[in-house]
Every structure is written in C-alpha cells, then in structure tokens.
Design goal:
Length: 200
C-alpha cells in the first residue's frame, strides 16, 4: 500500500553529529484530488495534523480501462493527478488522488449505473459473495515532480441482511456514488469477516 503523506516536521540531527539549532521544516500542504465527501472525511479522520485543500479532477473515468482492478485503479488515480497538476502550477504541494473498484462475481464494479444495478450488487453481498475492495493511489510532489503509486486491497463478507436495509441504502442515495454500491459503515452490523483493513 502507498505510504502516508508526510506532514510531520523534520527529524533532529543524526546521532554523533554536531549539535545544531533545530529549524522546523514547514510541512507541504496536501491537496486531495477528489469530489467525494466520504474520502474527504476519511482523510480528516486519519490525518488531522495535515492541512488540506480539495480539488475535483473532473475526468472521464470510463475512458481509462485496464484488465486487472489493481492496474485500473492506479491508472485512474494517475489520470486524475495528470488533470490536476497543471492547475497547481506555482504551488508546492503533495497531490493525493485515489480510485476504487469492487471486484465481485467475476466483474469489476464501479459506481452503479442505476437503482436496479445497485440493488443487484447489494443482493449479491447479502448472499455471502465477498466484496474485494481495490484501492489505487497516486501521490504527486509538485515541487520535485516525483510520483509514487500504491494499491491497498481488502475483502469483506456479509451475513444475509433484510431487503429493508437495501431499501434504506438506496433511498439515502449515497451508495450511487460509491464503487460497488455500498459504504462499509452502512453494513457494519452484518459484517461476517474482513480480510484486510476497513480503511481500504
């Protein structure tokens, strides 16, 4: 998985070096390349020490296709970064872009096309089919031009849940903007096991 963005101050002198006055290094500002409210809240939760801006990449994700979900999510994350880097000209920041798909039933599931597809996805999880959440990330340093990428994968399995749960999730509408048509917190009460971390 990709490493966390560095927001801490510089370390002190190395052992054995001459004592020097400590000069704190100013942390680079983070720009999260996403329009997802869920990703914004997740970032704020896990990186409260980081100052962050948010920018929507506004790319056609359907134009970026790969056979493997690991390759496709990284490719889409990089495409988002490519779209945003020119808009960050003159700013020294760490640009963080992500993408997620859910692999289940032999297919790659992105955001559901409509309510019927969302219900079909949720019904498959209720039948015990594992939802393999594949997350690609690209972190781009605009000061150096350096870019690193990574992939994090978790698989979650659920016990059967009632149709009323699906009705409620569809009515709220948030799952229509989520890969695989689910948000893990919504089904937490029915989770049977998780292979990996909930952050993925």
């Amino acid at each position: 998985a990709a490493q966390k963005p560095h927001c801490a101050r510089a370390r002190g002198p190395m052992d054995g070096a001459e004592p020097q006055a400590k000069r704190p290094r100013e942390a680079m500002r983070v720009v999260l390349g996403t329009s997802s409210k869920w990703r914004r809240s997740l970032f704020a939760k896990h990186f409260p020490e980081c100052s962050a801006d948010f920018m929507a990449p506004d790319i056609d994700e359907k134009a970026v296709r790969r056979e493997r979900p690991e390759d496709m999510t990284v490719a889409i994350a990089c495409a988002k970064a490519d779209a945003l880097v020119p808009r960050l000209a003159g700013r020294d920041v760490l640009l963080v872009c992500m993408d997620q798909v859910v692999a289940c039933g032999g297919e790659m599931r992105e955001k559901p096309a409509d309510e019927a597809q969302a219900r079909a996805y949720l019904a498959s999880y209720s039948r015990g089919e594992g939802a393999r959440c594949v997350n690609g990330m690209a972190v781009h340093n605009t000061a150096s031009g350096r870019r690193v990428t990574g992939v994090d994968v978790s698989t979650v399995f659920y016990r059967p849940f009632p149709e009323s749960v699906i009705d409620g999730m569809v009515k709220r509408g948030e799952i229509m903007n989520s890969a695989g048509a689910f948000i893990i917190e919504d089904l937490e009460a029915y989770q049977e096991r998780l292979q990996g971390t909930s952050g993925a």
